[in-house]
Amino acid sequence: MDPKRDSGLNEDTRSWQSFHPLTHNHEAKKEEGITKKRGGKPGAVLYKQLVSSVRDTPRVCTSHGTDAPLGPLIIIMKKIITVFGSTEKIISSPLSTIPTTNPPTLGAQGGSVAKALLEDGTFAVRAVTRDTSKPAALKLKEAGAEVVAADLDDKRSLEAALTGAYGAFVVTTHGWEDSSKEKEIIQGKAVADLAKSLGLKHVIFSGLENVKKLTGGKLEVHHFDGKGEVEEYFRAVGVPTTSVRLPYYYENLLTIFKKHTSKDGKVYDLRLPVGDVLLDGMSVEDLGHVVVSILKSPSEYIGKDIGLSAEKLKVEQYAEIMSKVTGKTIKDAKISPEDYEKHGGAKTLANMFRFYMMRPVRDVELTLKLNPKAKKFRHWLEENKEAFKDL
User: Fold this and answer.
1) Looking at the 3D structure of the chain, how many domains does it have?
2) pTM for the predicted model, two decimal places
3) Cα distances (angstroms) measured from residue 252 to each of 66, 197, 249
4) 84 and 41 in one domain?
5) How far is CA 355 from the centre of its chain?
6) 33 and 176 share one domain
7) Handedness of CA 256, 204, 183, 107 (dihedral sign)
8) Are residues 367 and 384 in the same domain?
9) Per-residue model confidence (pLDDT) at position 279
10) CB 5: neighbour CB atoms within 10 A?
């Protein structure tokens, strides 16, 4: 093999080289299902996501006296991205009186990221789940992901899930119980410490603002504040990190912020207490390709906090679009955060809306640069209008 011809593999690229014996007609044998096992630990699965290229170098086949292709098979393994939250659901909603049959989930974020990475093909995907037998996990495996069992509360399994990875998409859990914020911080710091010790080159963290810190303690939004502290910790320990901050999910309209029927039963009230402030929105399904774009341009995005938004609309505009698409009469209930809280809304969510009214940075232009196909609300609603037929 000519080392000059076969150099050009950078230090981030792993390769194996092997020579193929010739068949009688001088054709190189083809190998399928090339595998490499990893010691029997979690994550020790078959590497199906290999990019291979054969460089045929003419050599003399002495047994036949002719030139024949006897070049090295160079197998280049893609950089691995460990994706957390690929299938798990958030434990529960803080609004016990509101149906939550299909709540927004960690699986929605991680699943979106894993799917987009597989579609793009630049990176290998290691999808992390607590239960590898779940249908969602099996589907990811069928699509070409390496699916491994790990738990954010189990350091040994986390280390196995991150070992050998180039980068990771990390989303921590928030279960709404009183201790959840502290638990989320512990989980996030454990991942950050491992990412640092294992030398990961790029972590994308699903973060949010530390509202308590930003407002000098005037507002506490537990599911924001915990993620905000973890964001800060990743940077403090020196992990190359990009934080993506999602806005209000369109999917929330199907669950915890479902429409309320007016007293006469003919009109549906959309109860989003932000006044006339423009509320940023986005489908969680569109997060995946945002993450792919960030991973492909690390020098541009490492160290940045990216506030995402596909569109900015007033609640009145959300209601108007919903009326037109669903054929039902839906109106802005025009309630304040105070009214929302008085009528049974969780204080932490009332504070979230108060924070939204402060207009945190969410960048539509950058979001559409990262994912040009991110859906506007009307487009998303038209795709999902069947879900609203039984309002």
Assistant:
1) 2
2) 0.78
3) 69, 37, 5
4) no
5) 24
6) no
7) positive
8) yes
9) 97
10) 11
